[in-house]
Amino acid sequence: MLSCTMVTMHPVPTSAQSLIDARALGLGAYFPLVRDSREFSANPAGLVNIRDWDLSLTTYINPGTASPGFVFHGMTLGKRFFGDEALALRYAPGSSIRFVIPPVLSLGDASTPQSNDREIAYDEQFAVAYAHRFLPGLSAGIGARLRREEVTDTRYQIVIRDTLSYPTATHATFTDHAWLLDASVMWQPFPALTVSAAGRNLVWWRTGDAGSPLADYALPTTPVAEAGFAYAPDARFLISGELATTGTGGAGVEWLVPFGLAVRGGVRWDTRVAPAFDAISFGIGWSYEFFAVDAGYLKYIDRQRHNGSSTVSTFDPALLTDLDIHPYALDRVALSARAVFGSTRQSLARIEEVTVFGSIYPASSEILAYKPVGAVRVRNISARPINARASLFVERFMDTPTESPATYIVPGAAADIPLMAVFNEQVKKLTALSVREGDVSVSASPAESYDDRSQTRLVIMGRNAWDGDSRTLRFFVTPDDPAVLRYSRDVLLEHGDSLRNVAGMLERFAKARVLINSFAGRLLYINDPKLTADYVQYPAETLQLRGGDCDDFTVCFAALLSSIGLSTAFVDVVPPGHPDNSHIFMLCDTGVEPRYGASIADNPKRYVVRRNAAGVETLWLPLETTVAARGFDEAWTAGAQEYFDDVEVGLGLVKGWVHIVDVN
Amino acid sequence: MHSIILRQIPAFILGFIILAGCQKPADIALTPEVIDDNLEVFAVALPDSNIAVSSVDSSGVLPEDQVKFDGSCVIQSITWDAGSTVLSAAYSRVFFADSIVRVLGRRVGMGGLDVGTLSLNGSLMMKWPHRIPVGRIFGGDTSITRGVEYLTDLTQSYLSDHAYTWTVISRLVPVFTVGVQTPEDLTVLSPRGGAVIPRTKDLDIRWNGGKGKMSVIVSQYDPLQKTVKPILELRVKANNGKAVVPAKLLSTLPQQRYFVLTFILANRKEVTVTQPATGTILVQAASVHNSYVEVR
Question: Does the beta-carbon distance from B36 to A104 stay under 8 Å?
Answer without folding.
Answer: yes
